[in-house]
Amino acid sequence: PFCTEPFSCLPRPGFPFCTEPFSCLPRPGFPFCTEPFSCVFLFLFFVQVEQAVLASPNKRLVLVLNKIDLIPREMVLQWLKHLRNEFPTVAMKSATQSQRDHIGRTKGTFMSVSDKQLSGSMSLGTDCVMKILSNYCRNAGIKTTITVGVVGFPNVGKSSLINSLKRSRACTVGATAGVTKSVQEVHLDKHIRLLDSPGIVLAKDASDAASALLNCIKLEQLTDVITPVVAILRRCNQQQIMEKYEVPEFADVHEFLAHLARRTGKFKKGGVPDQEAAARSVLRDWNSGSIKFYTHPPEQHKLPTHVSAEIVSAWGKEFDMASLEKDDKTVVDGLVEMKDVAELDDEDEEEDDDDEDDDEEDMET
Asked: Burial level of 6, CB count in 10 A (0-12/13-18/19+)?
């Protein structure tokens, strides 16, 4: 049920970069890839950032899973469990409100709030971020100021994260790559300073298709907009794509784009379907999260060679991740109990309905 060639996209002798950046993606009948980090570009990015932090004894690394409202809660829990085997990890959703000040904040965790609150415009999980930063200052005996640099790919919500923590529009935000032009310092309080940074882009030898799927390049600058759509169709279930775009069954990317162009009224001269215009609309949906897609974490965790168990243990104590994990477990256990109660109530209602039906049958008899 998984990718038959999970390492087929890794570099080969004489090729420093991946020659087939999408060869590890799911094929028909193989819905998920077992190696979500096997693409060399992503792998190099993670390793280089982690090694740069680990090289300095005074630096620490915290992973933030942003935009958690786009995937199921159970998947967030699985990724948290997987990533916390290496570094302190928290999950949050940045605010999308447009006002200048008093940006809203939802109290609680992603498992304790309702679906309406999770999909709302207020931030969620900022309390967890503030908690681990405060824990670090307290446990490390820091009485001055710590500087927290926020790094990541373009359009992952770095500026929105800072605005959510600050509860004001301290940084300019946008849905396209390149909005943040330079490093900006934001004072969160007297103990914490945040550094907003431009998005880290891929190596210059990376393909446009890989850059487009990570929203590292503007659509206007893409010379080939068809290849990224091929990768999207490989990742997503065909039935899902057909239902979203209301198109009939298709055999390849060109047939799909032709159907979509006809349905949306995108034509060239002579009534020819404009496949490139249709492809750009699909890429916009992909980058905005309108196309639902997520990967599963590996079933078994293997500690990377550049990360030692001593570091994992020491950093976990500095950030007091045990208390955070305990809070998550308490919420999850409470939700399970509530679900069991709801199921029991449903069973009681079904029994009452059966009794009423029996009474009606007796009366008819």
From this structure: middle
Give the separation between CA 305 and CA 128, rounded to whole angstroms: 29
**What does the angle CA 34 – CA 112 – CA 106 come to, to the nearest 5 degrees?**
105
| CB atoms near residue 169 (< 10 Å) | 18
Q: What is the pLDDT of residues 6-58, one digit of tens each?
A: 444 444 333 333 334 444 444 333 333 433 433 444 555 567 778 888 888 88
Phi, psi at residue 160, to the nearest 5°?
Answer: -65, -35
DSSP 198: P
Residue 41 in tokens:
């570009």
E strands within the chain? 63-65, 89-91, 105-106, 123-124, 146-150, 184-187, 192-196
Q: Which residues contact 232 (CB under 8 A, 6 or more apart)?
A: 213, 282, 283, 286, 291, 293
Q: Going by C-beta distance under 8 Å and a sequence separation of 6 or more, which residues neighbour residue 73?
A: 110, 111, 118
Q: Are 39 and 67 in contact (CB under 8 A)?
A: no
Structure tokens belonging to residue 118: 């999770």
